[in-house]
Amino acid sequence: MGFYCEAGFTDLRRAVRRSCLRISLETAGEIRKQPTPAALALVSVFDFAFPLVVMIAYDLGVLAKRKGVLLTEQDVAAVLKRNFTESL
Length: 88
Prior knowledge:
This protein is mostly helical.
């Protein structure tokens, strides 16, 4: 007897974002364990930058696949702007 389970995402972008935030939280927790003053600064930078960079990469990939051609500077700028404002 076999079992079949269909797993899928209705909003893959949301799933990527949530996964990214979980990874960021875990990594930040590990960085906080370090007994150096630089660790506190690193946590702040990592907390902001990691999700931002991952989502920019995801959105650029999706846009490039959808367009089927190289992206223009305007395409890249729009993705950067949207992701930066979402992360504030």
